[in-house]
Amino acid sequence: MKETKQQFERRTAWWREAKFGMFIHWGLYAVPADNTNLKGDKVISEWYQSNKQMQVSEYEKFAAQFNPVKFNARDWVRMAKEAGMKYIVITSKHHDGFCMFDTRMTDYCITKATPYKKDPLKELAAECKRQGIKLCFYHSIMDWHHPDYLPRRPWEKDTRPAGNADLNRFIDYMKAQLRELLTNYGEIGVIWFDGGWEHDAKSLRSEEVVGMIRSIQPKIIINDRIQLPEDHSTPEQYIPANALPEGRLWETCMTMNDTWGFAKEDHNWKSTTDLIRKLIDIAHKGGNFLLNIGPTAEGEFPQPSIDRLREIGEWMKRNSEAIYGTTKSPFRKLSFEGRCSVKGSAIYLHVFDWGAGYLHLEGLQTRVREARSLTDSEKLSFTQTGKGEGAALRLQRPARLDPISTTIRLTLAGKPEVISIPNLIRADSSGAFLLKAADAEIVGKHAQYETGNGKDNIGFWTDKSDYVTWTVENGRPGPYRVILTYACPPDNDGAVFHVGVEKGARVRGQIASTGSWTEFRELVSEVILLPEGRSVISVRIAEMPKYAAMNLRSVLLKPEQR
Q1: May I ask the CATH class of domain 424-559?
Q2: Taking 70 as the threshold, does the pLDDT of residue 458 lie above it?
């Protein structure tokens, strides 16, 4: 029977309330602790076996050196809790196939192949239960060690022939291990899959696997990396520009430095201010933040991670009510540098830079009863004037500002009602309008903004009913040339798009290959007539013969000579 919306909301309520969790990448790769490849280029350390193109037998030798005698489950869970984190997601098995738990399915695990012999996940389960933290398991589908996992790595073709391998046998193995994880460690909050991209859902028997998981633990949450959408999306190392379409649950996972597993030469640490502001930005957009730690082979958190956890915890002690259980900001655009979150009849303003005078908030229709700073509980004076788009709140500057983010709780007379003031885009000095992906309003279920790793675009455009819009304010009516900047690999070309004024003129074009998802090219299209005043410009997909439409970076409306 299909789950109702109410049942889904009850099942995911703890996760939506939590907002903040700890990711732990821990395994044999912590022994070499090396984040370079064969060329010496910087890469991610937990891919060490792949980075160095090692044979399985060579990599297996690290198991004899893995002896985390300094591991202390109580300390790990305490540090997560004191940082304000509500759940822990730890690697039960990464792509190297080494199991960080006691399993009957293989000897390639911490209890049999290492001098340590103990099961750290069993200790974590007990501590999480004692300290009130949800324990969750990351589990890699990809497995470079198992004889039945396919495909083989390119450098293994002569040493590990795949002739007798059977992917179905591997899926049976994976199911058996998942059953162990779901029956031997108490209640598990999330199964966080990874490494499923080398096969489709049918090959992975994804529906069967998910059905088994839910039959054992019906309340569990499952992510989207088993080639099924399941409960939530998992943007990696970036924060979406906006909340995901149609209220889709999402969780940004991110490292504190550059790599997930411990790397002794990775010293590029994000500042505490940056991490807290990322947490705030994610709350502003209605998501969760899964922040990573890479423990050492001895079982300790690196000191820079410990320092940041402590400093985040100090901020959370004063401000956590503006994070836990909040929902996305109702404002399309804020008139100050900061973010906003909502809980019931309270609005929280997260102010990064107050400036010298009063703070202004535009568009709030609901009456404000009280304004108070969470930093030291100071009550602030305010004035509220106007209605509709003219509604404005003028807020007194607190006596004490938080250099990371000053949080103001606005207690309202009811649930917040906001007039959505559009993000108006005006012409530049040449008279052109540059409509950037980061400024787009995305409508639909799948398309979303991507940034980082060569991307600054609308991606995941896999449903042709999804579309994007911008609102422009034009003082020069007339003809404008439409120029798209986009990327598309050869196996996804052919989509037909329309660009135009909503309920007005539009032009049509077809997407050709640019080479890859990150090779961007301009497509000069036809001319549209742009009227005077405010207009909504949209990009819609008319035909999409393949998996996705394109990665759209921008639309330029360039005035034609008249």
Answers
A1: mainly beta
A2: yes
Q: Is 202 helix (H, G, I), strand (E, B) or coil?
A: helix
Determine the CATH number of domain 337-412.
2.60.40.1180
CATH of 5-322, one of 3.30.565.10, 3.20.20.80, 3.20.20.70, 3.40.50.261: 3.20.20.80
Output the DSSP codes for 238-273.
S--SSPPGGG--BEEEE-SSS-SS--TT---PPPHH
Residue type, 399: A
The DSSP letter of residue 148 is T
Provide CB contacts within 8 A for 117, sequence distance 6+: 110, 111
Name the residue among 63, 73, 163, 74 with its Cα closest to residue 110: 63
Q: In the chain, where are the structural domains located?
A: 5-322, 337-412, 424-559
Q: Convert the pLDDT of each residue in 419-452 to its tens digit.
A: 877 778 999 999 999 999 988 988 887 888 887 6
C-beta of residue 436 within 8 angstroms of C-beta of residue 561 = no
| Tens-place pLDDT, residues 158-177 | 899 998 999 999 999 999 99
Closest CA to 460 of 222, 229, 191, 296: 229
Q: What is the pTM of this model?
A: 0.85
